[in-house]
Fold:
Amino acid sequence: MAKENKGHKINPYLLLAIATVLLSAAALMRSFPVLVFAGIAPLFAITDHANENNFWNKLELIGVSLMITLLVWYELDFGMTVPVLLEAILITFAFGAYTFSRRSLGARLGKLPLILFWLAIEYVMLKFFADKRVFFLADVVYGKTDWLRWTNSTGYLGASLWILLANFVLYLGLFQKGLRIGFLVIFLIVILGPILYSYTLQSDYVARLNMLLLYMNDPTTAEGYNARGEWIPRTAAWISVLILLSAFVKDNIRKK
Structure:
């Protein structure tokens, strides 16, 4: 059974506003999109408002924030309204799956399942909609190729994991139990470490186009990447299935 995090919950509507402003600003500042490393942390904090009786409590705010942000990313192209709505629903489903799993399995794993569920959703979108206009979290930092040479080993969506981990640590440092300086130091390390490491590498980064071509069965000449593919979200998808199955089983047992 999940333990409620009482005493440190921030107003969910304030969290909605903070997340939307930060993520929208990151979408507009594509030449230096550092705000994306902080914009998802408030969405993580909204999940703390879910409870045993209503695991979906306030998660609709996450969907609203994601819809606004995606529209900004697509430069307010309202012809993208339906795809944006569907993608926002899919990612919000990751948050719902997390709060359901936390209710059934407890909170011992922290926000790790949420990160896995988000990556699993991105993998599903890649597998089934690679030929469509789809947004991936890694797209926000796509323009900073000098930061991403290590994606030759992790795959393009390794950058999505990087962004999510940074936001997770920021959540721990600001939102979970108030201000904790140690986690803020780790937050900076999580951001700067991969960037500095990238500048030591001579290898090329994995481009979004290379990823899409691979999953449209038109692989690039990067043999190492072709063999591994997007192994991080693929692994996250399989683990997510196991977590959800365990949560469903335990929830049914509890109801009997």
User: Anything to note?
Assistant: The CA atoms of residues 95 and 165 lie 15 Å apart. The mean pLDDT is 89. The chain is about 65% helix and 0% strand.
